[in-house]
Structure formats: structure tokens, C-alpha cells
Amino acid sequence: xxxxxxxxxxxxxxxxxxxxxxxxxxxxxxxxxxxxxxxxxxxxxxxxxxxxxxxxxxxxxxxxxxxxxxxxxxxxxxxxxxxxxxxxxxxxxxxxxxxxxxxxxxxxxxxxxxxxxxxxxxxxxxxxxxxxxxxxxxxxxxxxxxxxxxxxxxxxxxxxxxxxxxxxxxxxxxxxxxxxxxxxxxxxxxxxxxxxxxxxxxxxxxxxxxxxxxxxxxxxxxxxxxxxxxxxxxxxxxxxxxxxxxxxxxxxxxxxxxxxxxxxxxxxxxxxxxxxxxxxxxxxxxxxxxxxxxxxxxxxxxxxxxxxxxxxxxxxxxxxxxxxxxxxxxxxxxxxxxxxxxxxxxxxxxxxxxxxxxxxxxxxxxxxxxxxxxxxxxxxxxxxxxxxxxxxxxxxxxxxxxxxxxxxxxxxxxxxxxxxxxxxxxxxxxxxxxxxxxxxxxxxxxxxxxxxxxxxxxxxxxxxxxxxxxxxxxxxxxxxxxxxxxxxxxxxxxx
Length: 495
Ligand SMILES: *Cc1c(COP(=O)(O)O)cnc(C)c1O
Hints:
This is Threonine synthase. It comes from Pectinatus brassicae. GO terms for molecular function: threonine synthase activity. Keywords: Lyase, Pyridoxal phosphate. With 495 residues, the chain is an alpha/beta fold. It has a domain at 92-110 and 232-462: Rossmann fold. 46% of the residues lie in helices and 16% in strands. The protein has helices at residues 15-21, 40-47, 51-62, 68-79, 112-116, 119-129, 145-154, 173-180, 196-207, 210-218, 231-250, 270-281, 297-304, 329-337, 340-353, 360-367, 377-391, 397-413, 431-437, 447-455, 464-467, 485-493; strands spanning 3-5, 8-13, 30-32, 92-95, 98-102, 135-141, 160-167, 187-192, 221-225, 260-265, 285-292, 306-308, 355-357, 370-374, 418-423, 478-480. A 6-stranded mixed β-sheet has the order 4-5-15-10-11-14, with helices on both faces. Strand 7, helix 8 (173-180) and strand 8 form a beta-alpha-beta unit. The chain is globular, with a radius of gyration of 21 Å. The two termini are 38 Å apart. The structure holds pyridoxal-5'-phosphate. Pyridoxal-5'-phosphate is lined by residues 110-112, 145, 228, 265-271, 320-321, 398, 424-425.
């Protein structure tokens, strides 16, 4: 299986090269040339397997230049060793006919762990396989969750260093503490005097800066990315769609072969795109519902065919979905048209004009698979309260957006397929807004008081990783201006 760039189909690489590079040099994203096809027998073969075994079988379909043994080691390192707080890894919890896929049982309590526990394993294996001479330096700009999950995943992985930049004022107290207390011999965390866009633009500038790239190469380093533009981050996410399906068959909620729906709280379009890949491979999926918060650029796109990022940016209580450029939509569009020239035109329009439009035929092809809904702030809080009142179950604001979108879709479309809502963060990462939703007074209380407060309502234990932050020593106190990020990298690498 080869991977091609969405902007030049002649730019063809192996899985390990795609994972090492992170992004194609022509500015495009790597996609699989074809989708491996599965049948009912394959699904049956997964049915009684552990999550790890399911992962190994699915990964093998895509990682054709990795040996079965290599895949097995990668998966065991990622999802074994009690790194997740449940043996199921990604369990489904069901209430009557509502099903919620909990993706936040990993070490940082965010769904990013599902991919960022495995990506470092795949990358270090790829470095060994390709006999790469240079080490990799992963640069991450984070608005909170990705930074910690990437630090945890790459911590002490051979031949890789990781540098995370976070906006000084732009992350929650818990998220900042998670990052500045990170241990590991190959990790660096730096605060940026600016917002997330400053951090992200700074990282992109460095990726495109020939002088610094040449200097790094001469000193034995190459840059790469841990964001969902990297194929190695998308691939692990395909697994839980299959796993959820098998679990529902095992609980007799569906019959083998029956089509189901998934609703996905969406930002960069990585998570839901993995669901599309699962469907293209042959998993019985009817619809994928894309749930957005007030930054509803995708809802508008699915309704009109026009993607328009020229709009007000809202800071919401579901911050991991506060995004106006959903990078992975580029991959979906490529699969819809199979035309790299067309992709160059659209992406160029997006960059220069801030907008592009797909024609009616393409839009119909997309909406045959995808539906979209969005939710405002007030209704997000109300949904948290409603779900708690109805089921005594606490959800975080991102999950609430999806929960409501799933209901709205069902009511509107009269589609009674079994529906799975993807739950992307532990409510303990968003204590104050969740407590506010439950009508609990939060003012004047610190994060750890709020954690204990939420425990009174939430049956789940407080994740060990969050409890351990109380009193943990600060290891990273570096801070720099956005213009000085390159210097900060050189200083850390001592070059
Ligand atoms: C990253 C994230 C999302 C969005 O996922 P995408 O793959 O970017 O669409 C949703 N919820 C949470 C909690 C996240 O961290």
C-alpha cells in the first residue's frame, strides 16, 4: 500500500515515509492510494478480540511495509502496560438506545491519547526501518489537549525529541499544569507570549524556513509533525469505529451487518474522517454526523458547498473544536474528486481568498455520507444537565455538542439506525463549565477543589494523571516571543 499527496498524485511514498514526513513537501496531505476492503468474515474475526488484537488486524491492512511483529510491538506499547485505565481501552456505555463511545481513558484523559500513544511507536519503528540517519524533532503548537497527549506519547522515545509551544494565556489551568510538569529526557515545553494562532503560525514558519531546516539537517535532525495532518495520527483512529461496532454486536444492540450511525464532535476533521475511512473499507455505516460548536464553518459547508473561513472566531467552552480551518477536509475532498489539480485550486483559494465552493454534484456525494449540526454555548450547558438528570452520567462540553447533534439529526431525519456518540474528553478536564452546567457555584475555587467537587456527581474516579498534578514540581518555565521560537529551538537542541 502506497500513500499519495492530495496535491500531487505522483508524489508517492510508503507508510513509514508518510509517517516520518508528516506532510507532503508539496503542501498536500498523504492519503492511502486505495482503501483496503474488508468483508463480513473479517468483522467476525474481530468480534471476540481484545482492542489490541483488533488494532493489529486493522493496522496491518494499511502498514504494508511494517512486519506483523513490528505492528504487534507498537500496539502493545501503545495500549498495553496499563497505560489506559480500562482494559477495554475504548468502552461503549449504553443508556436505553443511546450509546456513547468513551475515548478518554488514556494517560491524559483526552481522546488524543488514542492516536498519540501509537504515533510515536509507529514513527520510531519507521526511523529504524528506513535506517534514517537523522533524529526527528517534533514541533507542536497546542491549544491544550494535543500538547500534553503528544508529550506523554513521545516521552523517552528513542531518536525523537519533542518541543511543545502553548499560548501563555490560552490554556486551562489543568492543561498548563499537565504540560509544565512533564518529565522525560527528550521533551521541552515553552510558553508563547501570544495566542494559539501565534504559536501555530510560528511553527508553520519554522517548517517552511529553509535556513533553519538546513541547519537542523546538518546537525542531525529533521522536523516532523504530531498533528492530525500526519497519517500516523489518523490511522489509529480507524480502529475504534470497528471496535465499537463489534462491541455493539456482542451486546446484541445490533446484528452483524446492520448499518449504524456515528456522531463526532469535530474540529480539525481528523476523528470523523477516520470514520469515513472505516466506512469506505466496508464497515456497515449509514451516516456520519459532524457536530460543531459556534465555530460552525463545517455545518455551513455541508449545507451550501461553500467553505468560508472569513467569519468571527468564537472562544467557546468546547475549545478543542474552536477552529476555522479544518485541515483534514482536504483529504475528504480528494477522495470525492480524485483530482490533485482541483485540490490545488481549492486550497489555494482558501489561502488567498479565504473561501472555495464545490459544485452540486460533489456536495451531493458528500451529503450522501455526512450530515452536520451545530450547537450554541447555552444549549451545550443544558445538554450536560439534561444527560445528567436523565442518566446520572456526566459528559464534558465537547461530548455534549455531539450528544445534542445526534438527537437533532434523529428528530430531523427520522433515521432510527443505531447511533453512537463519540465522547472525546473526560469531564474532569473541564471541571468549572461542567459544574456550572450542573448549577454548582464555582467562583473562587481552585482546580483541585473543583475536581473533588465534580467527583460528587461523577461516578468515574478522578484520573490518576490529574490528581498527581496537585503539588507536582514545575519542570518547564521557558517563555518566548512568537518571533523568537526558532532561537528557542536552537537553544534546546544546543546547535
Ligand atoms: C481534538 C478534539 C476534538 C476534535 O477532533 P478533530 O479530529 O480535530 O476533529 C474534539 N474533542 C476533543 C476533546 C478534542 O481534544
